[in-house]
Design a protein that fits this description.
The chain contains 17 helices and 38 strands. The chain is α/β, with parallel strands linked by helices. The chain folds into two domains: 343 residues, Metallo-dependent phosphatases (Purple Acid Phosphatase, chain A, domain 2), CATH 3.60.21; 279 residues, 5'-nucleotidase,  domain 2.
Length: 660
């Protein structure tokens, strides 16, 4: 054994003795057919937990059988029993993402020595290693490291540096160890025990420097993930690693390398010396049909650049599994076979109802029970009233009340903040996007707040992320380009066509900004001017028509202030001409806090959408889109559009028809 990180004896018994302790189990085929000098190693992955310990939707204030580490933990117990040799890793984004995370960060706080509930829950399960995701930085570095101090497992990150990058990645002054080596004894097919050294390296998207600049600027830097791995993987091999596993908090994107990719798992997996890769960040499951046709991906075999890979969903929805058949070659091991699976914690029955496949693990529930109860009290606190329902069922096809209230609050706040500055005489617009609009979150992933009291849970529901408010100064022409980028979410619709799919599923809904304070129409007969990555692909196309301010055509040279969030103002989404150089105001307050203050200030709000945008008429043309089934209750009352039900969609969604 070396002085590198090791598991506790308790955890080792759970991993290596799990099968015997569990009685009769279905062992993985590799475990059954491994020959002498061959061994089966199983890698278990959680990713993008986002503080979802309990199977509970705090935004809806109700249980939810599709989520929760307590449910995933039951799979972990079963999966360990199927393999004689296994390790458990977490791939990041565990610290932020639901009201429990915000309650701890903003209400209870983290003093030195405090235990965070998600860490307490993870400690129960005996993780071997974890890495950082981009959302780990949302509450600042001091908060993060107080949280990590409570972890009973090592957390690694090879590309997060203290201050400037060094000339050589190996000389970077890192906040955490770039990797760890774990020494184990594994059983081969004959029952003989052999030593193996497993290397685990962690990587986080360098975009954190834009997304959380207020926490990281001047304190940290992030190196390109591929370059960091290329530097450290050979060192891991020099240090005796038999098997190297990359913990890539990065999605499965393009095959070709480009500097500072956000979704870099395909070129990462191609690095010589990496044997397997666990991925995340994208809130998807791999292997799975969503990755059919991706370059560098073998969906049938679960391979990324020819290496075993997995992506285990989000919020505990799946457990990622990579099974390796290893063969001992002299004193080293090599991979001779693999399978990958993202194993779900639930399924849908014939009526599309969610059915939980596992119960809760009592020890995980107990670890965070007190904080769960405190969070419930926190989210149920009323802050005001609304005269109209706040829902997002049609946020992608019409001006929407859930987006409207965000813009109203942002405009109210920025006008007050700028009233004594050089910008006080510029008109203030507001850009806001729907965060809960179905998509990968599922058919229930919508805001739905009835008229009446508004509680903190409803504000968190309206604004999902703890972004901070920022303002940018731009021209009328740049307002138009901002909207052109947003309009890329729609497919091109041929005039006179029937029931064309309206929404481009590859375009993130959180990049569909509606700008309040101007009026405009979107001409769907035109191709998208920009692609989802902000690249100008159709220079002659102009979907944005009749863009007006104050009842007149907008002046391309006029100056405007646009209230937005730190993600967009920092360049998030790659909107044309929008980056940190255009920022004129950086608020100390989160968008959620601003919404709460606005509602408290107003007492009673009227968030009815004002239909400041609409689609240009295409007579005789229809298009289809999906939304939540409860959207049927509101379809007839959506301003500015004609919508009718069109049957059932896939995976619990309802289908609707837009009459253009």
């Amino acid at each position: 054994m070396t002085d590198h990180d090791r598991l506790s004896p308790m955890t080792r018994r759970a991993l290596l003795g799990g099968a015997a302790a569990s009685g009769i189990v279905m062992m993985h085929p590799f475990a059954l057919r491994a020959a002498t000098n061959q061994a089966h190693l199983r890698i278990l992955e959680t990713t993008d937990l986002h503080v979802h310990v309990f199977p509970y939707d705090y935004y809806g204030d109700k249980p939810n059988d599709t989520m929760g580490l307590a449910r995933t933990a039951s799979i972990i117990d079963a999966v360990r029993a199927e393999a004689a040799n296994s390790i458990l890793v977490d791939n990041g984004d565990f610290l932020q993402g639901n009201p429990m995370g915000d309650y701890i960060a903003y209400e209870r706080g983290m003093k030195d020595g405090d235990m965070h509930p998600v860490i307490a829950a993870m400690n129960v399960l005996g993780y071997d290693c974890g890495t950082l995701g981009n959302h780990e930085f949302n509450y600042g570095l001091d908060f993060l490291f107080k949280v990590l101090a409570g972890a009973s497992f090592p957390v690694v990150c090879a590309n997060l540096t203290k201050g400037a990058l060094a000339a050589d990645a190996r000389r970077d002054d890192l906040f955490l160890k770039p990797y760890i080596l774990i020494d184990r004894m594994v059983q081969d097919g004959s029952g003989a025990a052999h030593p193996i050294r497993i290397g685990l390296i962690g990587l986080v998207p360098p975009q954190i420097m834009s997304w959380d600049a207020k926490h990281l600027q001047g304190k940290a830097m992030a190196r390109d993930m591929v370059k960091a791995a290329e530097a450290f993987v050979p060192q891991m091999r020099e240090d005796g690693a038999d098997i190297v596993v990359a913990l890539s908090h990065s999605g499965i994107g393009q095959q070709a390398y480009a500097e500072n990719l956000e979704n870099a798992s395909v070129p990462l997996a191609a690095i010589d010396g990496i044997d397997a890769i666990v991925t995340g960040h994208s809130h998807l499951d791999f292997p799975g049909p969503k990755f059919d046709g991706f370059a560098g991906i073998d969906n049938a075999k679960g391979l990324i650049s020819g290496k075993p890979g997995v992506m285990g969903g989000f919020w505990g929805s799946h457990l990622g599994l990579i099974d390796l058949l290893l063969e001992r070659d002299g004193n080293t091991w090599r991979v001779v076979g693999s399978t990958s699976e993202a194993r779900s914690i639930f399924h849908r029955d014939d009526s599309k109802k969610v059915v939980a496949d596992y119960g809760d693990k009592a020890e995980v529930i107990a670890a965070a029970k007190a904080e769960h109860e405190a969070t419930l009290a926190y989210i149920r606190t009323p802050v005001g009233r609304t005269t109209a329902p706040l829902h997002s069922y049609f946020a992608l096809v019409a001006d929407d009340p859930s987006v409207q209230i965000v813009s109203q609050a942002q405009t109210w706040y920025i006008k007050d903040m700028l009233k004594d500055t050089e910008w006080k005489d510029l008109p203030v617009l507001s850009a806001a996007a729907p965060f809960k609009s179905g998509g990968r979150g599922g058919a229930g992933y919508y805001t739905d707040v009835p008229a009446g009291d508004i509680a903190i849970k409803n504000v968190a529901d309206l604004y999902l992320y703890p972004n901070t408010v920022q303002a940018v100064a731009i021209t009328g022409a740049e307002v138009a380009e901002w909207l052109e980028m947003s309009a890329g979410i729609f497919n091109r619709i041929e005039p006179g066509s029937k029931d064309t799919d309206l929404i481009n599923p590859d375009f993130p809904a959180y990049n569909f900004d509606v700008i309040d304070g101007v009026t405009y129409r979107i001409d769907l007969s035109q191709p998208a001017r920009y692609d989802k990555d902000g690249k100008l692909v159709q220079p002659e196309a102009h979907r944005i028509q009749d863009l007006h301010f104050g009842g007149k055509a907008i002046d391309p040279e006029a100056k405007f202030v646009v209230a937005t969030n730190n993600y967009r103002a920092g360049g998030g989404g790659s909107f044309p001409n929008i980056d940190s150089t255009r920022v004129i105001f950086v608020a100390p307050d989160t968008n959620r806090d601003v919404i709460v203050r606005y509602i408290v200030s107003e007492g009673t709000i009227n968030p009815s959408a004002d239909a400041n945008w609409s689609f240009a008429a295409l007579p005789g043309t229809t298009a289809l889109f999906d939304s939540g089934p409860k959207g049927r209750d509101y379809a007839a009352s959506v301003p500015g559009v004609r919508i009718e039900p069109a049957g059932d969609g896939a995976e619990g969604f309802a289908r609707f028809r837009l009459l253009l």
